[in-house]
Amino acid sequence: MTRIDLSDPAAIRREGAAWPWRIAFLVFATLLLIATHWPASEPSGNNVLSPDKLVHFLCFGGFTFLLWMTRWFRRFWVVALYSTAFTVLDEISQGFFSAHRDTSGADIAAGLLGVFAASAWMTTFQPADNFVTRQQEKQVIWVVDELLARPANWFLLAGAFVVPMLVVFLPLYILGWKTLGISVGNITLTLGILVGLAALGVVLRRILPDYLRRIETDRPCFECGVDLSDLELDADGSGHCGACGYPVHRSQWVRLPAPRIPLATILQADGALGLVCFAGYVLLAMCAAPLLLLANGHPGLASSIFYCGTFIAGALVWQWFRVLRNEIVEEGDRRCVRCRCDLTTVGVAGGLGVCPECGVNFARLHELVDDEGLGSPEPATHA
Ligand SMILES: [Zn+2]
Ligand SMILES: [Zn+2]
Fold it and tell me: pTM value?
């Protein structure tokens, strides 16, 4: 468990931002326990395949993700360990406490695949080393924290996802079952989730601009949340937050352009051998294993393995992208991240400049000439 320092306003803000996630986690875990221990209906004659394994995958993956977001544990492997234990114990206890429910190895496997998939993503959330990049990432975290500090937004976003998801999934599922006599649980659930995510995207597009505008007008400190619109910055656009002492730079309230890196370049980030390993992994986890399980009459596990393989491949690609992006952004005050033209002779005003070739913003922490003497922009007192 992490301890908070009550004299540090940044720690208090992090703690405050974690609370909505803690409530969400406790509600989710309680519902999950009830759902998995609810007495199952009498085994009926007709063999309709429900998307049961896929639901296990999503629920225990969701459990892991929410536990991570509570910020109770700092290390991702601790979260992964607790989630693994919870998944196994939850399944074993069903056999003891619930009528018509048995401990199922396939259910445990599907749940654990969910834990693995969520854990793979947790490893990609380390903050960037570069100050400018890290502040750009903190913009996103600040918006998420502000958005979710309002309980109404939780209901709005949950509703935006769940309602369209069920509207698509349930009728198609029942239709396939009742009229065609085939079970299309996994496919219809996947379709429902995709529609739910699209609806969530539409709602976010409507409410996000307000929060993004507030970054420009309020100029918040991303550590403690204090409004810094009156803070005097030096000629290079740098300063320190009056409340928590963290360094700030004018560029943190501007959306800087992200480099455009082709997918082919990202996939080759680890060289030829890395690409071969990745291709082998995709072939095995996303093609061969699911097809083999499908052919042997395990469609539920097949879809869980396919989902897990896709999530982990996505996490890998995202991690490669981050490494390449950070390399490019690291020298973003000397070469434009978009058009790669030379910026060393281009002047800046208050820490921000504009690329003369393509017109995008770039940040420069200090003037190039006295780059060395000023040291790191990190705070000395906050470990
Ligand atoms: Zn602050
Ligand atoms: Zn440019």
Answer: 0.84
